[in-house]
Structure formats: C-alpha cells, structure tokens
Design a protein that fits this description.
The complex is a heterodimer of chains A (255) and B (246).
Chain A: H1 3-16, H2 20-41, H3 47-79, H4 82-87, H5 93-127, H6 135-156, H7 161-177, H8 181-187, H9 191-203, H10 213-217, H11 224-250
Chain B: E1 4-15, E2 18-26, E3 29-30, E4 35-39, H1 46-53, E5 61-66, E6 69-70, E7 80-83, H2 95-105, H3 110-123, H4 139-150, E8 157-161, H5 169-184, E9 188-193, H6 196-202, E10 205-210, E11 213-219, H7 220-223, H8 230-245
Classes of the chains: A mainly alpha (255), B alpha/beta (246).
The structure holds adenosine-5'-triphosphate and magnesium ion.
Residues 13, 15, 20, 22, 40, 42-48, 85, 194 of chain B line the site of adenosine-5'-triphosphate.
C-alpha cells in the first residue's frame, strides 16, 4: 500500500483509540440533538428554521472536529518523538504531511457523514420527505472542513496543537467575515490600511463561499456550477496550505 | 565496503545565541558484520552523530556514508533500522499493530509481513503480550518492541541509541542476548552506550567520543591490556585527553 495512505490510516486508527474520539462523538450527538430538539419544540410548519439550524449545528461541529483533529496530528508525532522512528524509515517529508492531512480529513468527513445521515433521517421523519436539497450545503460543509484541516495542519507545523487550534478558530471566524473587507477597504483612506485589508482578503479563506445554508433551507436551488466553483476554490486553497506546510517542514530538524 | 563512514562530520547547534559544537570533525569507519560500540560520557555527541547519520538533522559541515551511500539518499533507509534513545511509540497501538504499521511503510506484502511480525515477536519474547497496548508496557518491554521494529525490513545495519539504559539486570540480559542474536544473523550493529561493562561483553570494536571528538577507536581486544577492564581504560583515555588540552 501507498506510504501516504499507510500514514493516514495510522492517524485514523490512533484517533479511534484515543479520547479525541469521545469528544468527536459528543460533538456529533450534540449537533444532531440540537436539530431534533428544535423540531420537537416547534411542532408545525417550522421546517425551514429547523433545516437552517440543523445545518448550522453540523457546520459548527464539523469545524470543531476538523480543527481539533488537524491541529493535533503532527504535534502528537513531534512531541512523542514517534516522528524520529518514522522519518528514519523510507518516508519522505511530503508523504508524512499528506498522510497526516488525509488521516485527519478522513476522520472529519466520516463524522460529517454520520451527522448528515442522522440529520436527513430526522428531517425525513418530520417532513415525510427525503430532503435531498440538503445535500449541496452538506457537501460544501465537507469542503470547508477540508480547508480547515489544511489550515490547522499548516499552523501545527509551527505551533503546538493548542495554539494551532486557537489560530485556526480565529481563521474560521475571520474567514466568514472576510467577504466584507472589500467594502471596508473602499472606504479606507489610508494606503497602508488598504494594503493590509486586501492582503487579508486574499490570504484568508473566503469561507462564506461555503455557506449556502440559508438559501438551501428556504428551498432555493443552488446551481451545481456554483457548488463546483466553490469546491475548486477550496481545493486550490487547500493545496496552497499544504505546499506552505511542506516548505516549513522541509527545513525542520527532528533531533 | 564500510557500514558507516564519516568525513569531518561537524554539527553545531545554535541555541540562545550560543554555539554548541555537538560533534566536531568526526572521522569514523565502521566495518560490517560486527557490533560497534559508540561510547562517551553524557553530552559527548553520540545521539547527535546518530541523528545526523539517519537524516533527522543536517550536518553543519562534513558528510557521511552509510552502506556506501551518501547520507540524504532515501535508498539508505530501506536497509537500516533505528531505535531512538528512550523510545516512545504510538501508545494506543499493540505490538502487532505497531509492527504491522511499520511493515506497511516498507511495503512488505501482507503474507510476508504477518510472518515477519510473528518471527520478531517470538525473537523478543513478546508473543504473549501481542495484543496489549504499548502504554501498558514496562521499560524493558518497550525497549524490546523497539528493537523488533528495527528489524521489520531485514536491515543490514541497525542503530541502537542506549538500548540498555534504564533496564533492570534481567531486562539488560535479554536485550544483550537479542543484540548478539542480531549480529549472528549477519547484520551490523552500531550502538551507543555508557554502560561500559555491557559494551565490553558485546562489542567487537569501539569508538570513544568526548566533547564531540573521537579520542579512541579500534578493536576491543587490541585496545585493552590483559586484565584491564574497559571502565579503567575509558577513564584513562578521557583523563589523558583532558590533560593534553589543559
Ligand atoms: N536539538 C539540540 N539543540 C541544541 N543542542 C543540542 C541538541 N541536541 C543535542 N544538543 C547538545 O549537543 C551536545 C551533544 O548531545 P548528545 O545528545 O548528542 O550527547 P550524547 O552523547 O548522546 O549524550 P547522552 O549520553 O546524555 O545521551 C550536548 O551538549 C547537547 O546539549
Ligand atoms: Mg544520547
């Protein structure tokens, strides 16, 4: 089997056996409970809100899981020095990074899939219909999760897992607000402010692209073209994050 | 053919603006099919030398060859094994899972891999605790699974950094027997230690490192006078070196 996949599988196996798994399960249950609870309270027509809130719950749980998993994988290997044994074997640095990344992505997508199935089932019971329109926002939540794993992996090549997760959460929040930067920049008089603003606008992931929860909940059809465009954006952003991680990692000592 | 050769190998660490010469102009030559003891007091640079040889850190100047290939060549890693100093492995894995993971890294086909795992567990006496997570292992058991993992790829050369440190007499004996066994299988063993008594019993030749420099090297039987213990010899050579410098 491929070395990258072996490393990814190792990451997955270790998460399954560690306490992180319990945290993930709690997040998932919380997200599902959150959407069910709402439907219980508002018996009646309120499915729009229920969809909106259910998706939001999944999105937040997905964010927390991706960041937690992505920012612990590499520091765990460095702090426990298991990386020394691994690097002494025929493992190239890019294989190491990609393996850690893919293992984390796998765990995070798996949990999103479980939450989504729970959500769709609850929704089906409630509305007596299979709400496949929910698939598009859920797919985009998956891709946002991939971007967040990549961002966390990048931070974790420089910082501890704790610091990386905090930074990644900051990026998550800023990434959801960054679409407003161009409007602010237009008003700013100062050139420096303008420059910093534009820099942030392009450096931060524009996570609002991935957020189609509201239109989906309102039954507005999201064109596939848009979905693919966003996926492409996510893929490019992820690739850049991984490339930067690799450059940082190349010159790192593991002694 | 040499198992290890270094040429003016130097590693300088810079920490807090201070330079630490961990190893300096080190010239080593280790012939194959023997147990080579790499000795020296704490901080002499033994671990640093191994780390450079394995590519965990880059040398500041100089270079080295392992099995005739220059360091940096990833091909080398197919043919070597490494047990780090006070090793730590994925603590949730069992012995079987750990060996299986490393076996897959070497792309050993499934059937062969399983056979190899059984052989190795048997060799280090861990067959009965194959399913126990490593977090529950004793120091000695960890050291033994650590040695087993160095052999998963049938290496020609293995590096052990302080494999007997911190073990009780029984654990030491087991590890030493295993090391002798590895030599019998026709592999070269390069190992660091400062437990001189054990080194004396195991090694064919030694190199003594002090403050990053090689002060003695050669076949053990040529270096020691009759009845002289390695401990006496070791202290004498380090003192002599200190005297020359003063
Ligand atoms: N990563 C590092 N950064 C800075 N200095 C280091 C680093 N690793 C080792 N050193 C320094 O290099 C010198 C040699 O250390 P090294 O660990 O190689 O010695 P050693 O012979 O293995 O000692 P020991 O018997 O205690 O294991 C020491 O002074 C140590 O403080
Ligand atoms: Mg050492």
């Amino acid at each position: 089997m491929n070395i990258i996949l072996t490393i990814a599988q190792g990451v997955y196996q270790r998460i399954i056996k560690s306490r992180i798994l319990y945290v993930i399960v709690v997040f998932c249950l919380f997200a599902i409970a959150y959407s069910t609870l709402y439907s219980a309270v508002t018996a009646g027509e309120e499915t729009k809100l229920m969809k909106d809130i259910g998706l939001a719950g999944i999105a937040v749980a997905a964010m927390l899981i991706s960041i937690m998993v992505g920012s612990t994988a590499i520091p765990a290997e460095i702090e426990s020095r298991t990386i020394q044994t691994l690097i002494s074997k025929p493992v190239k640095k890019h294989e190491f990074i990609l393996g850690q990344f893919l293992g984390s992505v796998y765990v995070s997508l798996l949990s999103i899939a479980i939450m989504s199935v729970g959500f769709i089932i609850i929704l089906a019971i409630k509305t007596h219909a299979l709400n496949l329109i929910m698939l598009k926002p859920l797919i985009l939540i998956c891709f946002e999760a991939i971007v967040l794993v990549a961002v966390s992996v990048l931070f974790s090549t420089i910082c501890s897992s704790m610091v990386s997760s905090i930074l990644a959460i900051v990026v998550y929040i800023a990434g959801h607000l960054s679409y407003q930067i161009p409007f602010l920049v237009e008003r700013a008089g100062n050139v420096v402010t303008k420059f910093i603003g534009l820099f942030l606008y392009y450096a931060l992931p524009n996570l609002q692209y991935f957020n189609v929860k509201a239109p989906a909940a309102h039954g507005i059809c999201i064109p596939w073209g848009l979905v693919f465009g966003v996926i492409l954006y996510g893929a490019i952003y992820t690739a850049v994050m991984l490339l930067v991680s690799l450059v940082i990692f190349k010159n790192k000592d593991f002694a | 053919m040499l198992a290890v050769k270094t040429e003016r190998l130097t590693k300088i660490y810079k920490t807090d603006g201070k330079e630490i010469k961990a190893i300096q102009d080190l010239n080593l030559e280790v012939t194959p099919n023997q147990i080579y003891g790499f000795l020296g007091p704490n901080g002499a640079g033994k671990t640093t030398t191994i780390n450079v040889l394995l590519g965990l850190t880059a040398p500041t100047t100089g270079t080295a060859w392992i099995l005739e290939k220059q360091i940096g060549d990833i091909e080398i890693k197919q043919k070597i094994g490494f047990l780090p100093q006070s090793p730590y492995f994925y603590e949730s894995f069992s012995s079987v899972e750990l060996l299986n993971f490393y076996g897959k890294i070497f792309k050993i086909p499934r059937k062969e891999r399983y056979k190899k795992i059984e052989e190795l567990l048997d060799m280090v006496g861990l067959t009965d605790s194959r399913k126990i997570p490593l977090r529950k292992f004793s120091r000695g058991m960890l050291q033994r699974i650590g040695i087993a993992q160095t052999l998963i790829n049938d290496p020609d050369l293995v590096f052990f950094d302080e494999p007997i440190a911190g073990l009780d007499p029984v654990g030491r004996k087991e590890v030493m027997d295993t090391i002798l066994n590895i030599k019998k299988q026709g592999r070269t063993v390069f190992f660091c230690s400062h437990v001189l008594h054990d080194v004396e019993m195991l090694c064919d030749s030694i190199g003594v490192l002090d403050k990053g420099q090689l002060i003695v090297s050669g076949k053990l039987k040529d270096l020691l006078k009759p009845k002289e213990s390695l401990e006496e010899y070791f202290l004498k050579s380090i003192e002599k070196k200190g005297g020359e410098k003063a």
